[in-house]
Write a structure and sequence with these properties.
The protein is an alpha+beta fold. It has helices at 17-50, 57-91, 200-211, 220-231, 271-279, 281-284, 298-310, and strands at 99-106, 109-113, 121-123, 125-129, 134-140, 145-148, 156-158, 164-168, 174-180, 192-198, 261-262, 267-268. It is elongated, with a radius of gyration of 25 Å. The two termini are 38 Å apart. Bound molecules: dinuclear copper ion.
Length: 312
């Protein structure tokens, strides 16, 4: 049970301003709940064991009204005011000039764009600098999803046809895990994303590298992989900037080899995982839009995996 108290996806191990406030609210609620629980159990023991006889009618009525109505109303009112007073800070717009990140939720992955760097299109990976407020502009392309990075802050729904907003301010560097917090279909549990919080200089360097077109394949295996990629029609859905593949339905693969995971947080990023994903997509992610390409011969698949892995 204590495993939930730390780690890359724990709201109890905050690494952002919003998450710190939410964790404080949680600890206050937990503390209050423990105190109230002790009092209630103490009274029950008193009534059953210590003074089991009949009780005075008037006194009993006072206990019921006080303990059953007055105290809960007071406690919940205090909690409501405390909780609501946090909200404006959690959903406020980031100050003018802050980094903006646009995220679109899809069944079952995340498209990520940096409006200030137009060519950059990521999938299932967000990198942000530490110690700065970052504004996320959120929407959905199909059903309602919910954008949640527990270690950094609260969750906000992504609604088709509407833009919602969330400001997060990470307080330490590291890698964290984001998830979808709204049931959105068969593979709802299989749409996660990686969040990397970096020092500003490292972030700028990374963003500049992401703006570059895809690397030319080096070895013969990678060259063959690119040929397979283009011949098999992968470019109808996926884009690789610098080649003629310019599909927009699936994730942009220009720098797919540099990503922390594959299949929206479901597989590690390795040539083996690429082969498994491409040949048996639906085995990894039920009901996924991408068809299984199990008709691709093993040697071609190996080349394709090597090419994609080389797209750093
Ligand atoms: Cu997207 Cu659940």
């Amino acid at each position: 049970m204590l495993g939930g108290c730390a780690g890359e996806q724990s709201a109890l191990d905050p690494a952002g301003r919003g998450a710190e406030q939410i964790a404080a609210l949680f600890w206050w609620m937990l503390g209050g709940a423990v105190v109230i629980w002790c009092i209630v159990v103490g009274l029950a023991i008193y009534a059953i064991r210590i003074a089991p006889g009949p009780h005075d009618d008037r006194q009993m009525r006072l206990w019921v009204i006080g303990g059953g109505a007055v105290i809960p109303t007071l406690v919940l009112t205090v909690l409501l005011i405390y909780g609501l007073s946090m909200l404006p800070g959690l959903v406020r717009a980031a100050p003018e000039g802050s980094l903006q990140v646009d995220v679109v939720g899809l069944q079952w992955w995340w498209q990520v764009r940096y409006p200030a760097s137009e060519s950059v299109k990521l999938a299932n990976e967000i990198r942000i600098p530490v110690g700065e407020p970052v504004q996320f502009n959120l929407t959905s392309a199909d059903v309602i999803h919910s954008f949640w990075i527990p270690a950094l802050g609260g969750k906000v729904d992504m609604v088709p046809g509407r833009e919602t907003r969330l400001t997060l301010e990470p307080t330490r560097t590291g890698r964290f895990r984001g998830v979808c917090a709204e049931y959105c279909g068969a593979s709802h549990a299989l749409m996660a994303f990686d969040v990397v919080v970096m020092e500003r200089a490292a972030f700028d360097e990374w963003l500049a590298a992401q703006q570059e077109p895809a690397k030319e394949p080096q070895g013969p295996l990678e060259v063959r992989g690119r040929e397979v990629f283009l011949r098999r029609g992968c470019g109808a859905c996926h884009a690789v900037r610098g080649t003629r593949a310019d599909g927009v339905v699936g994730p942009d693969l220009t720098h797919v080899g540099s990503r922390a995971s594959l299949g929206a947080g479901t597989l590690e990023n390795s040539p083996d995982a690429f082969r498994k994903w491409i040949a048996h997509t639906s085995r990894t992610k039920p009901a996924v839009r991408m068809p299984d390409f199990d008709m691709i011969p093993e040697a071609d698949l190996r080349a394709l995996a090597a090419y994609l892995e080389s797209l750093q």
